[in-house]
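General statements about sequence and structure are easier to judge against a single worked case. For one protein, we set the task of working out the C-alpha coordinates from the amino acid sequence alone. The sequence in question and its C-alpha coordinates are set out directly beneath this paragraph.
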Amino acid sequence: MQLSSPALPVGGFSYSEGIESAVDAGWIFNEQSANSWICDQLDLSLSRGDLYVVAQAVNAWRLFDKARISELNQWVLSTRESSETRLQTQQMGRSLVEWIKNQEVIDQDRLDFLASLPPTWPLSFALALAPFDIEAQVCLLAYAFSWAENMVQACIKTVPLGQKSGQRILATLRQKIPAAVEYALSLSDNDRQAFTPGLAILCANHETQYSRLFRS
Protein backbone atom coordinates (compact mmCIF):
# COMPACT_ATOMS: atom_id res chain seq x y z
CA MET A 1 0.00 0.00 0.00
CA GLN A 2 2.83 2.38 0.82
CA LEU A 3 4.51 1.70 -2.51
CA SER A 4 1.31 2.52 -4.39
CA SER A 5 0.83 5.83 -2.55
CA PRO A 6 1.13 9.14 -4.49
CA ALA A 7 3.12 10.37 -1.47
CA LEU A 8 6.00 8.03 -2.34
CA PRO A 9 8.90 10.45 -3.00
CA VAL A 10 9.83 9.30 -6.52
CA GLY A 11 8.46 12.18 -8.61
CA GLY A 12 5.75 10.27 -10.47
CA PHE A 13 3.44 13.28 -10.27
CA SER A 14 5.73 15.25 -12.61
CA TYR A 15 5.15 12.97 -15.63
CA SER A 16 2.10 12.60 -17.86
CA GLU A 17 3.43 9.87 -20.23
CA GLY A 18 2.13 11.64 -23.33
CA ILE A 19 -1.18 12.82 -21.88
CA GLU A 20 -0.11 16.46 -22.00
CA SER A 21 0.74 16.13 -25.69
CA ALA A 22 -2.54 14.32 -26.36
CA VAL A 23 -4.43 17.21 -24.78
CA ASP A 24 -2.41 19.70 -26.83
CA ALA A 25 -3.22 17.74 -30.01
CA GLY A 26 -6.93 17.63 -29.15
CA TRP A 27 -7.03 13.83 -28.71
CA ILE A 28 -8.00 14.16 -25.04
CA PHE A 29 -10.55 16.90 -24.39
CA ASN A 30 -13.13 15.69 -21.86
CA GLU A 31 -13.82 12.98 -19.28
CA GLN A 32 -14.85 10.34 -21.83
CA SER A 33 -11.78 10.79 -24.02
CA ALA A 34 -9.50 10.83 -20.98
CA ASN A 35 -11.10 7.64 -19.68
CA SER A 36 -10.71 5.90 -23.05
CA TRP A 37 -7.09 7.01 -23.36
CA ILE A 38 -5.99 5.72 -19.96
CA CYS A 39 -7.91 2.46 -20.30
CA ASP A 40 -6.36 1.84 -23.72
CA GLN A 41 -2.91 2.53 -22.32
CA LEU A 42 -3.59 0.04 -19.52
CA ASP A 43 -4.68 -2.69 -21.95
CA LEU A 44 -2.31 -2.06 -24.85
CA SER A 45 0.84 -1.06 -23.01
CA LEU A 46 1.01 -1.54 -19.24
CA SER A 47 -0.52 -5.04 -19.09
CA ARG A 48 1.66 -6.34 -21.92
CA GLY A 49 4.91 -4.78 -20.74
CA ASP A 50 5.61 -3.27 -17.34
CA LEU A 51 3.22 -5.45 -15.36
CA TYR A 52 4.75 -8.58 -16.84
CA VAL A 53 8.24 -7.26 -16.05
CA VAL A 54 7.38 -6.51 -12.42
CA ALA A 55 5.99 -10.01 -11.91
CA GLN A 56 9.11 -11.59 -13.39
CA ALA A 57 11.48 -9.22 -11.60
CA VAL A 58 10.10 -9.87 -8.12
CA ASN A 59 10.99 -13.55 -8.47
CA ALA A 60 14.35 -12.73 -10.06
CA TRP A 61 15.26 -10.48 -7.13
CA ARG A 62 14.28 -13.16 -4.64
CA LEU A 63 16.60 -15.60 -6.41
CA PHE A 64 19.12 -12.82 -7.09
CA ASP A 65 19.31 -13.98 -10.70
CA LYS A 66 21.59 -11.25 -12.04
CA ALA A 67 21.34 -12.30 -15.68
CA ARG A 68 17.53 -12.26 -15.59
CA ILE A 69 17.43 -8.93 -13.74
CA SER A 70 19.77 -7.33 -16.28
CA GLU A 71 17.78 -8.70 -19.22
CA LEU A 72 14.47 -7.39 -17.83
CA ASN A 73 15.95 -3.99 -17.05
CA GLN A 74 17.40 -3.66 -20.55
CA TRP A 75 14.07 -4.64 -22.08
CA VAL A 76 12.32 -1.89 -20.12
CA LEU A 77 14.83 0.65 -21.43
CA SER A 78 14.28 -0.56 -24.98
CA THR A 79 10.53 0.08 -24.67
CA ARG A 80 11.05 3.77 -23.82
CA GLU A 81 10.99 5.28 -27.30
CA SER A 82 11.59 8.92 -26.42
CA SER A 83 14.30 10.58 -24.33
CA GLU A 84 11.71 11.87 -21.85
CA THR A 85 10.15 8.50 -21.11
CA ARG A 86 13.60 6.94 -20.71
CA LEU A 87 14.60 9.70 -18.30
CA GLN A 88 11.34 9.12 -16.42
CA THR A 89 11.89 5.43 -15.76
CA GLN A 90 15.53 6.04 -14.78
CA GLN A 91 14.82 9.01 -12.51
CA MET A 92 11.97 7.25 -10.72
CA GLY A 93 14.06 4.09 -10.48
CA ARG A 94 16.97 5.94 -8.86
CA SER A 95 14.65 7.78 -6.48
CA LEU A 96 13.07 4.53 -5.35
CA VAL A 97 16.52 3.04 -4.74
CA GLU A 98 17.20 5.88 -2.29
CA TRP A 99 13.87 5.20 -0.59
CA ILE A 100 14.65 1.48 -0.36
CA LYS A 101 17.99 2.25 1.32
CA ASN A 102 16.17 4.00 4.15
CA GLN A 103 13.90 0.98 4.77
CA GLU A 104 16.89 -1.23 5.69
CA VAL A 105 15.24 -4.43 4.44
CA ILE A 106 17.28 -5.02 1.26
CA ASP A 107 20.84 -6.28 1.41
CA GLN A 108 23.60 -4.09 0.03
CA ASP A 109 24.60 -6.53 -2.72
CA ARG A 110 21.19 -6.25 -4.37
CA LEU A 111 21.14 -2.48 -3.97
CA ASP A 112 24.60 -2.13 -5.49
CA PHE A 113 23.69 -4.37 -8.41
CA LEU A 114 20.51 -2.43 -9.16
CA ALA A 115 22.35 0.89 -8.98
CA SER A 116 24.91 -0.39 -11.50
CA LEU A 117 22.38 -1.25 -14.23
CA PRO A 118 21.24 1.74 -14.13
CA PRO A 119 17.87 1.07 -12.44
CA THR A 120 14.50 1.46 -14.11
CA TRP A 121 11.23 2.07 -12.27
CA PRO A 122 9.74 -1.45 -12.73
CA LEU A 123 12.92 -3.16 -11.54
CA SER A 124 13.25 -0.88 -8.52
CA PHE A 125 9.59 -1.38 -7.65
CA ALA A 126 10.06 -5.15 -7.84
CA LEU A 127 13.09 -5.03 -5.55
CA ALA A 128 11.12 -3.05 -2.95
CA LEU A 129 8.49 -5.82 -2.95
CA ALA A 130 10.84 -8.80 -3.10
CA PRO A 131 11.58 -9.27 0.65
CA PHE A 132 7.92 -9.63 1.56
CA ASP A 133 5.68 -12.67 1.30
CA ILE A 134 3.27 -11.05 -1.14
CA GLU A 135 1.57 -12.78 -4.05
CA ALA A 136 2.49 -11.60 -7.53
CA GLN A 137 -1.10 -10.49 -8.16
CA VAL A 138 -1.00 -8.09 -5.21
CA CYS A 139 2.36 -6.69 -6.36
CA LEU A 140 0.96 -5.91 -9.78
CA LEU A 141 -2.24 -4.39 -8.39
CA ALA A 142 -0.12 -1.96 -6.36
CA TYR A 143 2.00 -1.05 -9.38
CA ALA A 144 -1.02 -0.58 -11.66
CA PHE A 145 -3.01 1.53 -9.22
CA SER A 146 -0.02 3.79 -8.58
CA TRP A 147 0.27 4.33 -12.33
CA ALA A 148 -3.48 4.90 -12.68
CA GLU A 149 -3.58 7.60 -10.02
CA ASN A 150 -0.72 9.47 -11.68
CA MET A 151 -2.38 9.32 -15.08
CA VAL A 152 -5.73 10.52 -13.73
CA GLN A 153 -4.07 13.40 -11.89
CA ALA A 154 -2.32 14.40 -15.12
CA CYS A 155 -5.70 14.53 -16.87
CA ILE A 156 -7.27 16.55 -14.06
CA LYS A 157 -4.55 19.16 -14.40
CA THR A 158 -4.27 19.36 -18.19
CA VAL A 159 -7.72 18.77 -19.75
CA PRO A 160 -8.72 20.08 -17.15
CA LEU A 161 -11.18 17.84 -15.31
CA GLY A 162 -12.92 18.12 -11.96
CA GLN A 163 -12.18 15.83 -9.04
CA LYS A 164 -15.48 13.96 -9.55
CA SER A 165 -14.50 13.18 -13.13
CA GLY A 166 -11.16 11.89 -11.90
CA GLN A 167 -12.86 9.64 -9.36
CA ARG A 168 -15.19 8.24 -12.02
CA ILE A 169 -12.20 7.39 -14.23
CA LEU A 170 -10.46 5.71 -11.28
CA ALA A 171 -13.63 3.71 -10.62
CA THR A 172 -13.51 2.43 -14.20
CA LEU A 173 -9.83 1.60 -13.87
CA ARG A 174 -10.47 -0.18 -10.58
CA GLN A 175 -12.74 -2.56 -12.47
CA LYS A 176 -10.30 -3.07 -15.36
CA ILE A 177 -7.00 -3.38 -13.50
CA PRO A 178 -7.57 -6.91 -12.08
CA ALA A 179 -8.13 -8.29 -15.60
CA ALA A 180 -5.01 -6.50 -16.84
CA VAL A 181 -3.03 -8.03 -13.98
CA GLU A 182 -4.31 -11.54 -14.73
CA TYR A 183 -3.41 -11.06 -18.39
CA ALA A 184 0.12 -9.96 -17.48
CA LEU A 185 0.55 -13.02 -15.27
CA SER A 186 -0.43 -15.30 -18.16
CA LEU A 187 2.29 -14.02 -20.51
CA SER A 188 5.70 -15.40 -21.39
CA ASP A 189 8.79 -13.63 -22.71
CA ASN A 190 7.62 -14.39 -26.24
CA ASP A 191 4.26 -12.71 -25.57
CA ARG A 192 5.41 -9.48 -23.90
CA GLN A 193 5.34 -6.44 -26.12
CA ALA A 194 5.53 -2.67 -26.26
CA PHE A 195 3.98 -1.37 -29.47
CA THR A 196 2.29 2.02 -29.08
CA PRO A 197 3.61 4.11 -32.01
CA GLY A 198 1.05 6.89 -31.55
CA LEU A 199 2.10 7.30 -27.93
CA ALA A 200 5.77 7.30 -28.92
CA ILE A 201 5.15 10.12 -31.43
CA LEU A 202 3.28 12.17 -28.83
CA CYS A 203 6.05 11.68 -26.30
CA ALA A 204 8.64 12.82 -28.84
CA ASN A 205 6.53 15.86 -29.73
CA HIS A 206 6.34 16.78 -26.06
CA GLU A 207 10.05 17.54 -26.06
CA THR A 208 9.43 20.65 -28.17
CA GLN A 209 5.89 21.50 -27.04
CA TYR A 210 5.51 25.23 -26.45
CA SER A 211 3.85 25.12 -23.02
CA ARG A 212 4.34 22.24 -20.60
CA LEU A 213 3.40 21.36 -17.03
CA PHE A 214 4.94 17.88 -17.06
CA ARG A 215 8.32 16.33 -17.80
CA SER A 216 6.91 13.78 -20.27
User: Anything to note?
Assistant: The domain at 26-86+134-189 is CATH 1.10.4190.10 (Urease accessory protein UreF).
